[in-house]
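ligand=adenosine monophosphate
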Amino acid sequence: MTDCLFCKMVNGDIPPDKVYEDDEVLAFNDINPQAPVHVLIIPKKHIATLNDAEDSDTQVLGQLNQVAAKLAKDGGYADDGYRVVMNCNTAGGQAVYHIHLHLLAGRQMSWPPG
Ligand code: AMP
Ligand code: ZN
């Protein structure tokens, strides 16, 4: 989608602060980090919200989580722990309508979230 911020990062119009890339997935540092580690992990395919994911997207939805775990292990914070979260629509706090998994680490997370 031409007017999507994260699609622009995928196609190179806006260069992300990239931490990981493969054929299906891109990960980059959040511009407004909420923890010492705050990475956004996105499918290269435009999917607006989790509600819009189709059966054919099942694999890439799993890959987002697998990349989160890989980055956590590679970064050395897997054992201490981390949080992954995906916001959906207004009440879920979604601001960018291209799905993304937040990977947060480096501080104690609270529960429930605000
Ligand atoms: P959400 O509220 O779940 O849609 O999260 C959107 C996230 O995108 C927020 O954490 C923002 O800080 C982040 N964000 C917005 N613009 C950029 C950008 N240009 N580069 C990196 N992260 C961004
Ligand atoms: Zn997009």
